């Protein structure tokens, strides 16, 4: 467990060709068995984190089903505070801790509207994007020790490229989606050379019928 930031598990379901959504942003790739596995992980973490575009595409609930002993915080990485006021997590912010990480560039009016709805705003940096290292430190200070990172591909790259991920867990759905505009597991600029890749060690695998779940540790 790192001392200065939470332990971060990246989890996603992808097609065999690495897509986490179709080009029209349909993303329900997990089987029922895999969904139970994801909810089991959710029940063991202190926070579930997504990027703004996942918020806008999916309006995710980011809550625990099947295992009801835990209510992790919902965390959205959203530089300009664009999370909709009528999204599920904002509408339920008074009952479950909901954190939105923004930058100093976020319009004050939006910030105030979200705060009024019960959202806790974390200002993380003054650049064009949320400073992820600052966010991680802030979360740790709030007592959040384990975070489940649930994408999408752009935020996954931001977190992986800044060495803020400890474990990667992917369910490979027996499908090929194709599409150069379909989001992949990891987007962003990517590595220039093979030797710049993020290296992983296989921790284990499970098979649910034709679906395969792979667990890796990220090597520093
Ligand atoms: N199959 C799965 O398991 C799964 C899981 C999750 C998502 N998805 C799918 O993935 C797609 C969305 O993925 P996406 O890659 O387009 O977007 P994303 O990663 O969900 O969100 C990216 C956005 O986060 C904000 N952000 C703020 N600071 C950032 C930083 N430091 N680094 C990275 N992002 C930062 C940026 O918006 P601002 O500049 O406005 O802040 C950025 O555009 C959707 O189709 C969703 O359904 C699939």
Write a brief structural summary:
The chain is built from 6 helices and 9 strands; from the N terminus they run E-H-E-H-E-H-E-H-E-H-E-H-E-E-E.
Which key terms come to mind for this protein?
Dihydrofolate Reductase, subunit A, 220 residues, binds NADP nicotinamide-adenine-dinucleotide phosphate, alpha/beta, 25% strand, globular, 23% helix
Structural account:
This protein is α/β, with parallel strands linked by helices. A nine-stranded mixed β-sheet has the order 5-4-3-2-6-1-7-9-8. The mean pLDDT is 97. It has helices at 32-42, 52-58, 88-91, 108-116, 132-141, 153-161; strands at residues 7-15, 47-51, 73-77, 98-102, 120-123, 146-149, 167-173, 200-208, 211-218. It has a single domain, classed as Dihydrofolate Reductase, subunit A. It is globular, with a radius of gyration of 17 Å. 23% of the residues lie in helices and 25% in strands.
CATH fold description: Dihydrofolate Reductase, subunit A
Give me the secondary-structure category. Answer: alpha/beta
Report the principal-axis shape: globular
β-strand percent reads 25-35%
Estimate the helix proportion, in percent: 10-25%
The CATH class, by name, is Alpha Beta
Number of domains: 1
Low-pLDDT runs: none
- What characterizes the major β-sheet? 9 strands, mixed
SS element count, helices: 6
Small-molecule components bound? NADP nicotinamide-adenine-dinucleotide phosphate
Order of helices and strands: EHEHEHEHEHEHEEE
End-to-end separation in angstroms reads 13 Å
Name the CATH superfamily assignment: Dihydrofolate Reductase, subunit A
What is the radius of gyration? Answer: 17 Å
